[in-house]
Structures are given as C-alpha cells and as structure tokens.
Amino acid sequence: MVEDRHVESAMVEFRDALNAGKKGPELEQLSLRLARACRDSLAESWGVKQWQDPHNAPEPGK
To answer: Between the CA of residue 25 and those of 17, 28, 54, what are the distances in Å?
Structure first.
C-alpha cells in the first residue's frame, strides 16, 4: 500500500493525539478515521469500490 494524502493526514493526527496522551472517544474517532482512510485508499488502488461503502456490496451469488 502506498499512502495517499488522506492516509498521511490521518496518521499524523493519530500520532499527535497519542503523543499528547489523548484517550477515550477522541482517540477512538481518530483510529476510525485512519482505518477509513486506509480502506478508501486500498479500494481506490485495487479497484474494489464496495470496500468504500460495504452496505452497497452485491449479494453473494449475484
């Protein structure tokens, strides 16, 4: 995986929060933002659009 600007930004925000001793909901939200940025980046580079919105994925066998 090659990080794009969204992944880089989310990583920097997460690192800064960790270094500042943040905990709880704030750190949780930043970790979810980082995970989403990684998923979106992989979906784009691998051409798997349903990763970006798993609720719109086709049903198995269709």
So the answer is: 11, 5, 24
pLDDT 10s digits, 2-53: 678 999 999 999 999 999 999 999 999 999 999 999 989 988 888 877 666 6
Enter the pTM of the model.
0.74
Q: Three-class SS of residue 20? A: coil
- How large is the angle between the packed helices 25-46 and 5-19, nearest 10 degrees? 160
CA distances to 41, 44, 50 from 20, in Å = 27, 32, 35
What pLDDT sits at residue 44? 85
**Whole-number Å distance between alpha carbons of 38 and 32:** 10
**Structure tokens that stand for 35 in this block:** 């995970």
The residue extents of the domains of the chain are: 5-56
